[in-house]
């Protein structure tokens, strides 16, 4: 499916990453994790002592972190200022700070521009790409041929995520997911919404393979 953009949006822990990577691997597409980019900027802010709850302070430095995203779905990479932050961006300090940082318009403007450039590059290479995030179908790439909105019950999301994290506390994980959802859905700029034309897939009762198959079928229909 060359030339195709698959926009995969949804709440935290709905299975976006595993689904996006699986779809990209099965169809031979590139893969971009935009959440990792917001997390990497957050990691940079924390390392540089920026108060992540001070929107003006974050905005003032939004152009500084130099990000590089690798687009291979079987081995995605993310660096900031040349440093590999793949592990650091999944830590609790980043989980707690990423939503306020992502609500800052200057951060979003910068990352949306970078994301569009990466998508353009993949398309220019004759490839297609699966892009996951919160605002891909609504803001970053409204012309995506396939738009999917993934959701799942909070308790299902929390137990999956806690298991991924090697058995962290499910109740605490659920609180952290819900806190992020609330900020992401309530922010003024590019809140999490179901994009026009998106297909809603509730993953609560499905296995990962079943969800991947559903999205692969949607891609087959358009291209
Ligand atoms: O997808 P992930 O859970 O890694 O995203 C982390 C955070 O990054 C989200 O909670 C949200 O605040 C932010 N984000 C965003 N827009 C995107 C992707 C992620 O605001 N396109």
Secondary-structure map:
Elements (H helix, E strand, L loop, with lengths): L4 E6 L5 H12 L2 E4 H14 L7 H6 L6 E4 L6 E4 L2 E2 L7 H11 L2 H20 L4 E5 L2 H5 L5 E6 L2 H11 L5 H17 L12 E4 L5 H15 L1
Parallel strand pairs: 1-6, 1-7, 2-6, 7-8
Antiparallel strand pairs: 3-4, 4-5
Helix pairs in contact: 1-9, 2-4, 2-5, 4-8, 7-8
This protein binds cytidine-5'-monophosphate.
The site of cytidine-5'-monophosphate has 13 residues, from helix 2, helix 4 and helix 8.
Overall description:
The chain is an alpha/beta fold and 223 residues long. It contains nine helices and eight strands. The chain has helices at 16-27, 34-47, 55-60, 92-102, 105-124, 136-140, 154-164, 170-186, 208-222; strands at 5-10, 30-33, 67-70, 77-80, 83-84, 129-133, 146-151, 199-202. The strands form two sheets. It has a five-stranded parallel beta sheet, with helices on both faces. A three-stranded antiparallel beta sheet has the order 3-4-5, with helices on one face. Helix 1 packs across helix 9 and helix 7 crosses helix 8 (170-186). The model has no long low-confidence stretch (mean pLDDT 94). The structure holds cytidine-5'-monophosphate (C5P). Residues 12, 34-35, 38-39, 98-99, 102, 133-135, 180, 184 line the site of cytidine-5'-monophosphate. Its main location: cytoplasm. One of its GO terms (molecular function) is dCMP kinase activity. ATP binds at residues 10-18. One of its GO terms (cellular component) is cytoplasm.
């Amino acid at each position: 499916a060359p030339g195709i953009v698959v926009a995969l949006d949804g709440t935290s822990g709905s299975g976006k990453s595993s689904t996006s990577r699986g779809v990209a691997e099965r169809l031979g597409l590139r893969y971009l994790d935009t959440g990792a980019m917001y997390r990497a900027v957050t990691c940079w802010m924390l390392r540089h002592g920026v108060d992540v709850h001070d929107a003006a302070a974050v905005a003032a430095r939004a152009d500084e972190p130099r990000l590089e995203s690798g687009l291979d779905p079987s081995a995605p990479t993310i660096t900031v200022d040349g440093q590999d932050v793949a592990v650091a961006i999944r830590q609790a300090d980043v989980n707690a700070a990423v939503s306020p940082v992502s609500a800052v318009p200057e951060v979003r403007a910068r990352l949306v521009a970078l994301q569009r450039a990466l998508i353009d590059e993949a398309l220019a290479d004759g490839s297609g790409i699966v892009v996951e995030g919160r605002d891909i179908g609504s803001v970053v790439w409204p012309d995506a041929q396939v738009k999917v909105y993934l959701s799942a019950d909070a308790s299902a999301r929390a137990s999956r995520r806690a298991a991924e994290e090697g058995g962290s506390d499910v109740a605490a994980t659920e609180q952290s997911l819900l806190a992020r959802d609330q900020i992401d859905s309530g922010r003024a700029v590019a809140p999490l919404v179901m994009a026009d034309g998106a297909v809603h897939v509730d993953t609560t009762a499905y296995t990962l393979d079943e969800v991947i198959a559903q999205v692969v079928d949607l891609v087959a229909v358009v291209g």
